[in-house]
Amino acid sequence: MTLQLADKVAFVSGAGRGIGAASARLFARQGARVMLAARTEDQLEAVTEQIRAAGGEAGYVVCDLGDPDSVRAAVDRTVRRFGRLDVAFNNGGTNTPPAPVDQVTRADFDLLYEVNLRGVWAAMAAEVAAIRATAGSGAIVNNSSVGSLTGNPVLPAYGAMKRAVNSLTESAAITYGPENIRVNAVAPGNTRTEMIEEWAAASPGLVQRLIAATPLGRQAEPAEIAEAALWLLSERASFVNGVVLRVDGGARA
């Protein structure tokens, strides 16, 4: 069976845990040389060693998505290490405690903007430049959320930033499609990640409510979101561009 990312170089942010770690492992199994990026070095080192132990090729770079210079440096290091960039999954992000609009603090709003929106913009800008200069064509996937597709009374700022990511994704798809650089997004639903666990700790019963609203009747595993990102990055999705793909078990159907 042909590997979906054979001979490709992939950049994955937020790769130390959850969806990002699952994606980095999957991309490596599918033939990519993977650069993992996140803020926490011990997590990055552990996932990188897992990939290498399984026979894959990977490196890591400590990166602060809230700092555009750090993001550009991480992408540049990917090119220096592997010689090119073909695909990227902008998965990294942060969260803040659930709160209605009037109780979101300025500090929390600014943090979500800096990491979840500006960080994605900075990553896409650097990635497009790297793909254009080295591979000539490629694909980018941004991690959005089903919370971006509807009003979100307890996570309004988070949802707003993710909705803006959808807009950035669509604008980039139109802009760079003529260069054969495809840009899409995945919008995960209730997924078994540390972020959901943190929200659930602040809002007891949250996970159970989300499961009850999901026709498949369970949480997604991070690997299931990784599979969707893999497909969008691969040539199997060669005519898919500007899509925000719901991976939510039917919760928004």
TrEMBL record:
- Pfam families, alphabetized: adh_short_C2
Q: Which CDD domains match?
A: SDR_c
Determine if Zinc-finger is one of this entry's keywords: no
Keyword annotations of the record = Oxidoreductase
Top-level taxon? Bacteria
A molecular function annotated in GO for this UniProt entry is: oxidoreductase activity
- Family membership: Belongs to the short-chain dehydrogenases/reductases (SDR) family.
In Swiss-Prot or TrEMBL terms, this protein is called 2,5-dichloro-2,5-cyclohexadiene-1,4-diol dehydrogenase
Q: Which organism is it from?
A: Paractinoplanes ferrugineus
